[in-house]
Amino acid sequence: MSTLHTINKSPFAHSTLFSCLRVCVERDGILLLEDGVFGTITSAPGADELQLLIQRGVKVFALINDIKARGLEEKLAPNIELIDYNTFVQLTLDHRCVQSWY
Hints:
This protein is of the alpha/beta class. Helix content is 32%, strand content 22%. It contains 4 helices and 5 strands, in the order βαβαβαβαβ. The chain has helices at residues 16-23, 47-55, 64-69, 85-94, and strands at residues 3-7, 29-32, 59-63, 81-83, 97-101. The protein has a 5-stranded parallel β-sheet. β1, α1 (16-23) and β2 form a beta-alpha-beta unit. The protein starts with a strand and ends with a strand.
């Protein structure tokens, strides 16, 4: 993988997810954290585009603690991997660079 993109803003209130989706390429990873985890639900803005990127080889992750804190466990879109903080750290090591979207 090359770039790990981190998104902490809700797609219902910010355009950061859409900006990220425009530049992601195969082998990149997207990590949704904090309010960014609202991007994991099937009705979120950009949900269809996110699923298309997953089909093209982009891995999408979400922090399980943030998902639970917002009560989203039952609303997740398919093919999004829930991870813990240890895995988050490992992802930063596995990617060439980390791009945070604000």
